[in-house]
Amino acid sequence: xxxxxxxxxxxxxxxxxxxxxxxxxxxxxxxxxxxxxxxxxxxxxxxxxxxxxxxxxxxxxxxxxxxxxxxxxxxxxxxxxxxxxxxxxxxxxxxxxxxxxxxxxxxxxxxxxxxxxxxxxxxxxxxxxxxxxxxxxxxxxxxxxxxxxxxxxxxxxxxxxxxxxxxxxxxxxxxxxxxxxxxxxxxxxxxxxxxxxxxxxxxxxxxxxxxxxxxxxxxxxxxxxxxxxxxxxxxxxxxxxxxxxxxxxxxxxxxxxxxxxxxxxxxxxxxxx
Length: 273
What we know:
Purple Acid Phosphatase, chain A, domain 2, four-stranded mixed sheet, about 20% strand
C-alpha cells in the first residue's frame, strides 16, 4: 500500500485524473491524503468533489479556505465572489450529498509513524500548538460544524482575533482556529497572524516570518497546501514541513508526495492543452 499526499486541487479535475493515472493509483490498495481546497477557481470543482467523495475510505481530506467558502455560501448565507467557480456545485442535483460530505471532513489529520507524527492541515501548524493540542482544537470546530453548520459559517469570516490565547471562547475562539488551519502564512514572534500578504517569502510584513521558520517543541512531519507562491519549497524551515501546493490552477502543476519514499510526482497544468 502506498500513501500519496496531494496539494490543492482547486477544481483541476483533468490534472487530478491524469496524476492518479501517473501514480497507478488503485483504491483499496493505495491511499490519498488531500491537503484541502478541493474546489474553486478551476473549471472542474463539481467533478473533483464527486471524484474524491467516491473514493470513500481510500481518501483522507482536510478542509481548506475555499472548501469552507463553498460551505459558507451554500449553508451560511455568504456571498459568492467574482472569481468563484462554484455555481455547478450549487446547482447540481446531488449538491446536498456533496455538501453534507464536505461538512464532515476534518481540519487536521494526525497519524503516528515510526519517525513521529505525520500531520496534514491546509495552511500549516501554528508554531505554539503541539500536534496533540492542534488536533484537539480542530476537533472543537469540527464539532461546531456538525452541530450547527449554518450558524457557525455565518459568523466564520473575520481577521480578529489574530493571536491565540487559551482563554478565547465562543465564535472568536473558533474563528482563530479556522484561520490558523486554513489561512495562515506569516506569523510574528509573539504569535500574531498576518492575513494581508499572500505572495512569496519576500512579501512578509515587517517583523513577520513564515510559520515554518519557527522552531517547535515537538517534531511532526507537517504536510500543507495553501501557499502556491512557495512552489513546493520551504526555504529556511526549522521544522519538517512539506509544501504541496504547486499552483496547478495558476498554470503550475499538481504535486503528489509518496509518503513512503519522499518522491514527488508532478502533473503539469493542462489548461492550455
